[in-house]
Specification:
The complex is a heterodimer of chains A (66) and B (326). Chain A contains three helices and no strands. Chain A has 66 residues and is an all-alpha fold. Classes of the chains: A mainly alpha (66), B alpha/beta (326). Chains A and B meet through helix 1 and helix 2 of A and helix 11 and helix 12 of B.
Amino acid sequence: MKTEFHFRDEDLRLGTHLVDDLDLDSIDAVDLAVRVEQKTGLSLDEADLKSIRTIQDIVDLIDERL
Amino acid sequence: MSASSLGSEAASHPHRWARIAERGSWWGLRFTAWLFRSAGRGPTLVLVTAIVAYFFLTDRAGRRASAAYLRRVHATAVGRAALGHPPRTWDSFLHYRAFALSIVDRLSIWFGRTDDFELELHGFEPFDRLAEQKRGAIVLGAHLGSFDVMRMLAARHKTVVNVLMFTANAQRINQIFRELSPEVETHVISVDPGSVESVFEVRRCLARGEHVAILGDRVEPGDRHRSSRVPFLGGEVELPQAPFLLASLLGCPVLLVVALRRGPQRYQIFTEQLAERVTLPRRERETAARELLTTYAARLEHHCQRAPYEWFNFYDYWGDDPFSSG
């Protein structure tokens, strides 16, 4: 995913903010959600996406659901 | 559909249409809809023609845009044959009048008075095939002919077509329907720049086997950094990548539907599949999106040349008019 989204290693910390630091927009957000779904088998909805602000939030969400 | 801010962007060139649309005030739209409902098609056509004639006389930039577009059409062999002569001011008036006629037809469709419409279908097979497979598609259209005719056709075939619409316009249209015709179901998906809700709504529609229609010939405010410049009628125009990005994300086909007016309540509807599966890997996204948009623009050009007066973008579409007020 790092390569796909052109993220730099130094930008990928747990506290990294997806919108402010990685400049993701709504299409990127759904793209990310679809990829997380494909990798984990989870089903995400817009409420899940709205609750995600940082990489830590994604980790917590996956951890909670799996 | 991006997170960039609206206000400042709306003033820049590709979004002029948003401000121009504001000229058609909401009260005017409401009154016209009311007149159609109470007095019918004839008086509404008189009113709408008068309004359009007023715009024709007062909107110099619009007249110039129409003339520039017709000159581009005339510069092609097919367009020259369709117009018959080099475009004159009268042809621009006919262009405006075609818009008036399309508005009245839209009202007929919105209010369910569709029995008298005669539809000639060219290539409806992609819809039949998707219905068999219970799959939805992104249905791409343009401000070319009537998009609403496609919705009428879908209704006749018991297919649901939802229309993705910029929030401000969606609210306005929904309010008119709520007041004047509460029984009509609009199937409008409202798009807020930066919000993910609309993308999930599109996903749900597709999962139900419904289609989602998008007009793809104008860059919406906020979509500026997700657009490509492609050739169109002898120049280059900016088109949004969003419809193809959505199709790529949600794994659905993209159809093109163009409905051209060929006489009183008589339309030819052309349907074709632009892509069965859109793949836009991020690394090659720009190139792949540009390729798809080039095909889309070429198909629009094909129809513009054959039905020149059906193109309803009355602003400096190519952004090359030095006298355009911006």
